[in-house]
Design goal:
single chain, alpha/beta, Molybdenum Cofactor Biosythetic Enzyme, Chain A, Molybdopterin biosynthesis moea protein, domain 2, Molybdopterin biosynthesis moeA protein, domain 3, about 15% helix, about 25% strand
Length: about 400
């Protein structure tokens, strides 16, 4: 088994010499996890809080609703006063007023009285039930009950939704639309959430054309920029800056210095003569991991420049995707307060055919599920991005997702 890289001995300049050692996936993940803590809290308007992660728990300071209320249109009554009422035994009550939402009846209801009431209106003092309009006959200033109702019928009780002192949400919860409704119901206009990580994306390569440009000559359209931007958004990050940068030392230094929480560098991470980024990262900060015993994504590197986490992602699109999913995405999710785990559904199923893996290296295969069995599509072909569009997930060679 390949031994974990000792970060203090990581050789930055491996250009044209090959990696002298590679970290295991486990060692690389362990180093990364040691760097990860949620970012500081930020206060945002409630309207902007959907999908954000709570930085602190929320306890209600009030009852919702704050009063007993009618749950249907009809008449507020004392249930005992119409006990035994039926179509053949109508019981009369005097109508003494009405209650509307936001406009309660002022006074106390007597046993021989009724108050016309609309759904959502406060239940008058003295009343304990609502007689539905469809079982009531109105004649002038009297209503005749044609049915009885038990106490509490058609009444929404105070605090039946939220009670004062109830813990509504715990820290780390990712807020859903219905959560915002609950928070609004207790009068919250802002909420404290974990700040979303700012992510810079640097795409290296003199052969790259801007995304969406038709390829021509010996140049290719950038595929990694749109992919990494979408993955960053999926994981709760904000793309602060995304640009193609030439394989030139000064331009790369400028890109590395731009402020952010996470820097994704696509390309220039391996051992080629123009792979400057590992050396620059080592000079400007810390190159903790360079080269991982996995396929694809073997040339992946990780480190820090001051407070910025830096991920060196291979330029080949499949390797870039794999390295992002296993390392960079994990960091972006954790910094934003989300689970570090993969945001994919998991299954366990038998392999449809055998997969071979080199001892000491973890292979991740593009695969699909066919009739309950995992059908490998590819392990190699790091530049064949279309192979990922036919997959369900990455699987390791033991058939575990």
């Amino acid at each position: 088994m390949t031994q974990p890289t000792d970060p203090s001995r990581c050789d930055a300049d491996v250009r044209m010499r090959g990696f002298s050692r590679r970290s295991t996936v486990e060692a690389a993940s362990a180093w990364l996890d040691a760097q990860l803590q949620p970012l500081a809290a930020a206060e945002v308007p409630l309207a902007d809080a959907a999908g954000r992660v709570l930085a602190e728990g929320i306890t209600s300071g009030m009852d919702v609703p704050g009063f007993d209320r009618a749950m249907m249109d009809g008449f507020a009554v004392q249930a005992a006063s119409i006990a035994g009422a039926a179509p053949y035994n109508r019981m009369p009550l005097a109508i003494v007023g009405q209650a509307l939402p936001g406009r309660p009846f002022v006074g106390t209801l007597a046993s021989d009285q009724a108050v016309r009431i609309m759904t959502g209106a406060p239940l008058p003092a003295g009343a304990d039930a609502v007689l539905p309009a469809e079982v009531a006959d109105v004649e002038g200033q009297r209503v005749f009950a044609q049915g009885e109702v038990p106490p509490g019928k058609n009444v929404g009780r105070r605090a039946e939704d939220v009670a004062a002192g109830a813990v509504l949400f715990s820290p780390g919860r990712r807020l859903r639309p219905q959560d915002l409704g609950v928070l609004s119901s207790i009068g919250m206009s802002t909420v404290r959430v974990v700040r979303r990580p700012l992510v810079n994306i640097v795409l290296t390569g003199n052969e790259l054309l801007p995304a969406g440009t038709p390829p021509h000559g010996h140049q290719i359209a950038d595929a990694n920029g749109p992919m990494l931007s979408a993955l960053t958004a999926r994981d709760g990050g904000i793309v602060n800056h995304c640009a193609i940068v030439a394989d030139q030392r000064e331009q790369l230094l400028t890109a590395l210095a731009r402020e952010c929480d996470v820097l994704l560098v696509s390309g220039g991470s391996s051992v080629g003569i123009e792979d400057h980024v590992p050396v620059l990262l080592s000079e400007q900060g810390e190159l903790a991991i360079h080269g991982i015993a996995m396929r694809p994504s073997s040339p992946t590197g990780m480190g820090r420049i001051e407070n910025r986490l830096v991920f060196l992602l291979p330029g080949n699109p499949v390797s870039c995707l794999c390295a992002y999913d296993f390392f960079a995405g994990r960091a972006i999710r954790a910094l934003g307060g989300r689970s570090k785990d993969w945001p994919y559904r998991r299954i366990t199923a038998p392999l449809a055919r055998k997969l071979n893996s080199t001892i000491g290296r973890v292979d991740y295969a593009r695969a699909k599920l066919v009739d309950g069995r995992i059908e490998p599509l590819s392990i190699g072909g790091a530049s064949i991005l279309s192979s990922t569009t036919r997959r369900r997930r990455f699987f390791d060679c033991a058939g575990r997702q």
